Amino acid sequence: MTEIEEPRTTEAHVYAGPGRELRREQLHLQEPQAEEVLLDVVACGVCHTDLHLLKEEIAFPHPAVLGHEVSGVVRAVGDGVDHVGPGDRVVCSFIMPCGRCRHCERGRDDLCEVFFTMNRLSGTLYDGTSRLSRRGGEPVAMYSMGGHARQAVVPKRAVFEVPEGVPLTDAAVLGCSLFTACGAISTVAKVRRGESVAVIAAGGVGLSMIHLARAAGAERVVAIDVDDDKLALAEELGATETINSTRADPVESLHGLLGHGADVVIEALGSAATAKLAVDLADDGGRAVLAGVAPIGQTLDVDITKVVRRKIQILGTFGGQAHETMPEVLRMVEQGGIDLERLITDRFSFDEVGEAYRALDERRIRGRGLIEIAPELA
């Protein structure tokens, strides 16, 4: 393993439990183990999934360091890492595949059992321990790599080198927002040229889906939201039409625009009402793709006969396959097919992590928010 400097500590924003504000702390940071990468975090995206955790809508152990959409500079690598080295500019996928479970072995690393069991349920990496702890030795859980910190340890299969010419700070949003969108558009929905696509919720992920749907050749892309500012940004990013669902019935409006339902409908919020709406908006033989993570206990209530008779497919998506989707996203941004400058609408400093999530909760972030932790390293 490449040597790192002593003492091994890092500054992080720690979530200590329900009703508590994020608190800056100095934490102990373990060195990267085999097949792990230690990086200096340059930036971390502001994602609604972290907000779900902060609001206790998704169960996760605490104390914890959240933040799962990061870019950075490699500081050190563990044994068995040969694709990146110290000084390399990298971005990380929020799904961190183990490479060895039954799903990873058949190329479906988006379903990695070890990631979901060890990290998403327990907040650890794959030896069953966190790389973060308080001074007294109390473990601090990691949500993915724990990106609300100045350093992070990441399993190697989630680490990808950023091409020259791609801004490293802005590249952070590729690891969840664009990664999730690309997985939904290309891998699950398989959007084809000439098709119609409707996207419910024009937030950070939804806007990325709109952007990529147009890049995939969709002829009509309809954005549905309750916020006119977000809908205006959706048009800038490729939406051909918009519907404000507070002023018009989205089903009637979509049929008025297209003459029928959409070939593909993507739900990017995560609620029972919008998931049902996705099915209702789908055309005969269409695909309703559910991408939004919902609070615990929300279930889908649909007209079963309609789904059966009209051959509507209901598909779930949670990110893409890291080994395929991240290189694809990086190629697209390198070739100018992704407009990161327009997607990232709100920027915060490392001091403003708490404010970033308050702004997200209050719907004050128009597109994707970004916490610039150490932009001077980019």
Structure characterization notes:
The chain is built from 12 helices and 18 strands. It is α/β, with parallel strands linked by helices and 378 residues long. The chain is globular and about 60 Å long. Strands 3, 5, 6, 9, 10, 17 and 18 form a 7-stranded mixed sheet that branches. α4 (177-188) crosses α10. It comes from Nesterenkonia halobia. Pfam families: ADH_N, ADH_zinc_N.
Number of domains: 2
Specify Rg, calculated over alpha carbons.
20 Å
CATH class wording of the largest domain: Alpha Beta
Summing up helix and strand content along with how strands pair, one would put the structural category as alpha/beta
- Tally of helical runs: 12
What's the order of the H and E elements? EEEHEEEHHEEEEHEHEHEHEHEHEHHEHE
Q: How does the overall form come out from the CA principal axes?
A: globular
The CATH architecture term of the largest domain is: Alpha-Beta Complex
- How would a textbook summarize the main sheet? 7 strands, mixed
Could you state the CATH homologous superfamily of the largest domain?
Medium-chain alcohol dehydrogenases, catalytic domain
* CATH topological fold name of the largest domain: Quinone Oxidoreductase, Chain A, domain 1
Termini gap: 24 Å
* Strands, total number: 18
Task: Please give the share of residues in helix.
Answer: 25-40%
* Poorly predicted parts: none
Average pLDDT, rounded to a whole number, is: 94
Fraction of residues in β-strands: 25-35%
Family: Belongs to the zinc-containing alcohol dehydrogenase family.
Keywords: Metal-binding, Oxidoreductase, Zinc
Domain Enoyl reductase (ER): 19-371
Cofactor: Zn(2+)
